[in-house]
Specification:
Multidrug-efflux Transporter Regulator, Chain: A, Domain 2; 95 residues; elongated; mainly alpha; single chain; 54% helix
Length: 95
């Protein structure tokens, strides 16, 4: 972001434009992270899905058992595709 001016320093239009661009870049990064839910991750573990959706372990289990939310099990770990989660949310959206 550069040098932060003190109260007695003048700001130029260029300074304000630089500040605006810095803020816009940060806002874009935050929005992208919020929209993706998990920045850069395609596969989420159960704990991440429960936190993301704000649901209990039992409810996540029932989503798996009923086939509403597909999953992949490797060893003892269960993984969920982020796209499957967003599809599930969109398909259960009410008006």
């Amino acid at each position: 972001m550069g040098v932060v001016p003190t109260r007695n320093q003048l700001l130029t239009l260029g300074d304000l434009d630089d500040f605006k661009n810095d803020v816009l870049q940060e806002v874009k990064r935050i929005i992208k992270e919020c929209v993706s839910g998990a920045p850069g991750k395609k596969w989420l573990k159960s704990a991440e899905v429960k936190k993301l959706l704000g649901i209990s372990h039992g409810f996540l289990q029932s989503l798996r058992d009923s086939g509403v939310l597909p999953f992949t099990k490797i060893g003892g770990s269960i993984y969920y595709d982020y796209e499957d989660i967003t599809f599930m949310m969109a398909s259960h959206k009410s008006a």
